[in-house]
What we know:
six-stranded mixed beta sheet; alpha/beta
Amino acid sequence: MNSTESEAVNARAWDRYGDHHLRRGTAVPEVDRISWGFWPSGPGAEVLGDLTGLRVLDLASGLGKHAAHLVREHGATVDAVEASASQHARASARYGDLPGLTLIHADAVEHLQRADPYDVIYSIHGFAYINPHRLLPALHCGLKPGGRLAFSVLHTNSHGHEPSLSVAPRTETLPLVGGESQSVEMWVLTPKLWEDICVDNGLLLDGIDQIDAPEEADHVSVRLYRARRRTLISSRPRTNRPPEPHSALGVGAILHGPRGLLLGRHRRGTIELPGGTVEPGESLEGAVVRELHEETGCRAREEDVILLGVLVDQVGPVVRTTVPAVVTRWAGDPATQPDESVGNWYWCRLDELVDGLFIPSAQCLTVWRPDLAIDHPTARFYPFAGPDQSPQRVALTVQSA
Length: 401
């Protein structure tokens, strides 16, 4: 079963569940707090911060009861998007007239793609029913820079079955209250996988909360993930003009020492790392050394270049690949070079980075230092570095000659 079929199974299951309760006339219960697990315990709405006056999205909102609580008690303006027609109908019957709450029947990803970005997005158990590779890129676009994200997902089921080690759905049986049990397809992933997917899509993970069942005999466990979108904005989109055959591969050189990170300004205004395209027959390390000297006048040796991996993304129909590289030793002071597009080189502290980074430079920097809050289009990253040359270790070993 592919991911599309898995999501279709889930949609049918929740429609059946909602229809069952519509026929019975089951009342929608009120809540007096946000509960991220299946029990009235653990963190509450404080996870989301002060919501007064903010635009908030409840993703896979179900009956809308949590969204209604945030509107009434926390001063938020909330859009509640739900894919199940019957669950949406139940929510509309109960909360359709509540000022500040908009109930939306739509696929979550399609809604994120057309809506204005939100200050806060949250989801209680909803992420597990949507393919993360479809959802997270849309979330990146649907969240304002610096915006907060919180979502809870199943970690261990009632049989003690632990999360999967691959991003693939698995069959789970939900003993839904007041209705028949439903078989669904859920993405139950390890914290490492959820973190990797978030980072790959421009989200910084701030923390993970463990929420266990109150009874020791109950194996069910939930994880609450707290994240935010990177705040610094990259700029100057690259051309979608097909490159020359030798120009599809580029390098970005990271020089960081006591004076800070080396950056320059392109004549078009963006801020960039030293770097450029790899020439025919040239090694990647050789390209780093050559571009560094041509653009800054600094000299380095190929043995002092550590390649971190390959970034792969797309600009229109063109696939672009960039290799971020850390230069651990170099000689000379950077200076503007004649006939080069980038100059005005300067050393910048990492906590003083500003908006306007060239997209490949932004991507290189967040591979090197994932904690940097730099917002940029997503790219696939395939690491080269071994255990002794991880980006974290490399960040601690650079120095100028």
